[in-house]
Design the sequence.
């Protein structure tokens, strides 16, 4: 029980340090987090005359979770390179998974105000239901998990925090803008659709579209979406566990 309490205390401390404290010290961070998803929502809704509002809400939620997951690479790189916190933790009883879990959970807590905005839009759109809420939470948690695993793995290989400023936008572009997240996949040229299915966010978006009043997948299609999304998440978590450089070689 003592070990469990120690791990829990470590996770909660990291959550406060990287999730709660930044909000308390600088609330503008929250505006920065929600600015891009809401900008896409605004312009897509205006350009489509409101027709794609539901797709924009789903895309905003997915992009927010993806952003806070991948931003883990910037935070961990900062703590590793600038503050040397990782060196301290390596010499302490804190395990790598406790550190990563606490940091990832801090990002999730940090995203709650922004997600509250999109949850309100989801309810305002008249799409709220218990079954939809379960699907929504399940999909978004998986997106957060695989994005966090990817962010942590990349962060352990960076030697300079500034390198994360290059990779983070590219990951966001590749996973939340180019795939059919903010629009139906049918809007893509048929020749490009096979490439869209290379991104796990395509499967996540397909499931989310079904809970925002847009045409959703069939039962068989939903099973495939869940299998691919879960498989991709497990694969990235395994990659992080095996390949991430917790200690310098």
Sequence:
């Amino acid at each position: 029980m003592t070990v469990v309490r120690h791990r829990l205390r470590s996770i909660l401390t990291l959550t406060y340090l990287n999730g709660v404290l930044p909000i308390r010290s600088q609330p503008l961070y929250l505006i920065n987090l929600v600015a891009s998803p809401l900008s896409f929502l605004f312009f897509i809704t205006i350009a489509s005359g409101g027709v794609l509002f539901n797709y924009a809400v789903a895309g905003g939620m997915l992009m927010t979770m993806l952003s806070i997951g991948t931003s883990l690479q910037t935070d961990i790189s900062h703590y590793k390179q600038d503050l040397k916190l990782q060196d301290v933790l390596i010499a302490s009883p804190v395990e790598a998974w406790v550190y990563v879990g606490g940091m990832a959970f801090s990002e999730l807590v940090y995203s709650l105000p922004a997600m509250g905005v999109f949850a309100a839009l989801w309810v305002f759109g008249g799409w709220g239901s218990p079954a939809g809420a379960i699907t929504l939470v399940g999909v978004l948690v998986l997106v957060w998990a695989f994005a966090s695993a990817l962010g942590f793995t990349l962060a352990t290989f960076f030697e300079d925090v500034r390198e994360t400023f290059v990779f983070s936008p590219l990951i966001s572009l590749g996973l939340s803008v180019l795939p059919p997240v903010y629009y139906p996949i049918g809007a893509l040229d048929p020749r490009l659709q096979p490439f869209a299915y290379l991104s796990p966010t395509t499967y996540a978006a397909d499931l989310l579209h079904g809970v925002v009043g847009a045409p959703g997948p069939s039962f068989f299609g939903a099973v495939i979406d869940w299998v691919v999304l879960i498989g991709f998440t497990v694969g990235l978590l395994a990659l992080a566990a095996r390949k991430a450089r917790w200690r310098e070689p």
Summary: The chain has eleven helices and no strands. The first helix runs from residue 2 to 25.
